[in-house]
Amino acid sequence: MTTIEIVTGILLLLCCVCLIILCLCQDSRAQNGMTSAITGASSDSFYGKNEGRTKEAKLIKATKVGITIFFVLTLVLNALPLFFN
Q: How far apart are CA 38 and CA 32, in angstroms?
């Protein structure tokens, strides 16, 4: 293994851990129907209407960027042996 492969592998591992954390931080969208009727959750408030523009939207955008980085790093890691052998 070359140094470039090791560094790319470490970056890929860090990207995987960050993606797992980002996915776990996102809210589930299962609070519709009976659950919201029982708990009283409502999106009629100001925060409920603008919630998509705050934390949740940033998490979704960060997840999309992380997935793109993961995809590119995976391709690079698999293509490196073709160029360095």
A: 10
Those residues of the chain that have pLDDT short of 50 are: 30
Rounded-to-integer distance, Cα 24 and Cα 9, Å: 23
Instruction: Determine the longest span between alpha carbons in the chain, in angstroms.
Output: 62
User: Hey, is 47 helix, strand or coil?
Assistant: helix
Decide: pTM greater than 0.85. Answer: no
Instruction: Give helix 55-83 / helix 3-25 axis angle, nearest 10°.
Output: 160
Structure tokens at 85: 């052998």
Buried residues in 9-41 as b, exposed as e (16+ CB within 10 A): eeebeebeebbeebeeeeeeeeeeeeeeeeeee
